[in-house]
Amino acid sequence: MQSSFIQKYLANKVFWLYLFAGGIVLGTILLGLLESSVHIPIPTILHIVFENSLGIGWLSDVPKNVEMIIWNIRLPRVLLALCVGASLALAGAAFQGLLRNPLADPYTIGVSSGSALGAVFVIFFQVTIVGLGSYTLPVVAIVSGLITLFIVFGLVRLSSRSLAIETIILAGIIVSAFIGALTSLIISLGDQDAMTQIIYWLYGSVAMRGWSHVQLIIPFMIVGALILFVHYRELNALALGEEAADHIGVNVKRGKLFILIGASLLTGAAVAVSGTIGFVGLVIPHLVRLVTGPNHKHVLPLSMLIGGAFLILADLLSRTVVAPSELPLGVITGLIGAPIFAILLVKERISGRGD
Amino acid sequence: MIKIENLVGGYKNTPIIKGMDLEIEQGEFFALLGPNGSGKTTLFKLITGQLPIREGKIILSGKEISSYSKLEKAKKVSVLTQEIQVSFDYTVEEIISLGRYPHQKGMLKQLSIADQKMMSDVMEKTKISHYRYTPFRMISGGEKQRVLLAKALAQEPEILLLDEPTNHLDINHTFQILDLLKEQQQETGLTVLAILHDLNIASLYADRIGLLEKGKLLEVGGVDVLRKEEQLKKVYEVEVKSQSHPVVPKPQILMTPGHVITDNPFDFNKSYKIVKNSTYIHVQFFQALRTISNGVIGEGIQWAKHFCNFHVDKHYDCSNPKKDLQEKMNTYDIPYEQAVGMMTAVNLEDMVMETKEIEGIPMMVIVTAGIGNAVDITNEYAVHPSSQIGTINTMLFIDAHFTDGALVNGYMSATEAKVKVLQDLQIKDPESDTIATGTSTDALLLGLTQQGEVTPYAGSGTVMGKGIGQLVYHATMKAVKKYLKRVQR
User: Fold this and answer.
1) CA atoms within 13 A on the CB side of B395
2) How far is A331 from chain B (nearest CA, A)?
3) Which CATH number fits domain A77-350: 3.20.20.70, 3.10.180.10, 1.10.1040.10, 1.10.3470.10?
């Protein structure tokens, strides 16, 4: 009796969590569309969105420039923030589950900087791989992120036998520093103008990207997310350690590889369209876990939703705090994320000692 | 269930398992024993597939083990190791649900109602239902291990591999876990293959034992393999003695530490002090003595330092002598856990103490005697509740090293000497009017310093036995005569 009651309560709780997260996403999208220097009433915004996406419109005389602002500037920006935030948060949750540590994140383990190097390379040299076209950028970013990941892991394996998180983060910092130098080298080869542009890009931003960038990230986000969702049980099993996961029948090698590929797809694509935005993948899964518990069945999708909403809000903050000029998104997430990272580190050490 | 044929395997270039044949039957509890590095864990890893098999084969339910997929194998074999660290705050229930991993079907791989039921069953069985929603990290080590056992059982395995599952647990939790396993084995026919370090626990729980040494099975057999002291000594390089468990008919191994053997010898004549008054005689040795006795306290074969003979009233109500004696010892600050205690109604002033040396071995005997209840053990009359308290209490201390067998020999020798005294003095059993063999409540103790050469025999055919006999005879004779004198007066 009691347990079925609790189960029902839990099921309900999960339902409400998803409803709540979905509501937040919709709310932040609306807020992102609404809040700006030019005020446009909500009904008009809704009309424009519905007319352009579904062909259902109810207002007759919407000025062309208003439609331009909403449909061509604000909506792609908001959606891009949503996709980038969702991808980074999901990748962070996956890395944390895989490495069994809440301190992992695409940024702290160096994947982001690897992807950034690839992206800078493509942008700076205007490289296009035949057959990929505009997808050259995300593909190169993903591949260079994945390569960086393997370099980091290789370094960890060489320096210590266990995958201790401190070692991984240290290796991430070492590799990031080296990659940062390479990136700087590429930048310094160019002229003043290109330099400023790339540096600003590296800080991370979703401004002035337009629909083309939304198109760039969405396929990778969907594939990456699907790969990770399919492997949620393996992520749960890995909490026991790789050996114990093997004992309950998990194909650990294959599972790990898929999870790494999925997370790298998400990270690489996000970096390719927005630059390096740190700490989203660190903070969001942690917050989600506080509410739902560590079961990846719920941590993964909820991290995606909350991560997306978080980045829309962060973007909103970045363009309103010092309006009319804008702060880079990476600055905002860094200002929020780094202190939380520090708190988590301390907490982890304390609980580690308590064990 | 599992058949291992000519198995060779281990790490690259250096096989740890060097040719092994073993067959484990369905439903048995098989314990693998052996020192560190003998290949126990390697064998496990060869079974679980973590290490490659280089030669030979492992056959599981008639099929070669490498032909199973990971999921198929996980449905047949589950593993319980030493405590594992779980990251994040998973609840106990979530951990157990992982045991259902190999059984989950369909695209979504949700927990079905059958899965839920199985989980509830194993939680009930391992008595952790009330922890269901508690984070795994919050519960104690022993409870964690029960949870991991529940997870392993949720896999519905046919064979359970245990890799020192109770290493870090206290004895309470160790026995809890092993009892649960044994129950499971007996009820469901689960086959258990366990690596155990504790030989005594292996002896108590295993049906069969395999002793591994340097990658080879030295011997396979029932737990009585553990009675082979020489073999264990060779494998573990530790002095061991195999004894029987006092309650269960299984061997228990006692280890002898290296440092005891090098203890400094002591002078027997200076190694004790005696307190004697009208209430008790207390012989205190500074070193513990190997003792055999039928005392009220400290009976059987023991190590003891304090040897007491307490005076009690003639009309003593002996309904709970053990407790009375413990209380008495408490009053005089004698630790009864390290003592042998006797009782007598005889006047303790009539105590006789004698010392003697036989072939350079000092002995000391203390006798108190009364023969009011003289009994011929061979007469057919019924035993009467004693009207007069009278008993012959003998304490014999010898500066020698006796085996357990010699202790029993010595005990016989001392008893024979006592019988001879009664015979020579023509003491009669009043009921049958035949010569008595003793009184109804005689007590005897032998205390050995265990110094010097080991003496395997102390019967009447040995110098030692004769020495015991003569000393006890003399002292008892004196004591009985003193008693008779007092009674006449």
Assistant:
1) 29
2) 29
3) 1.10.3470.10
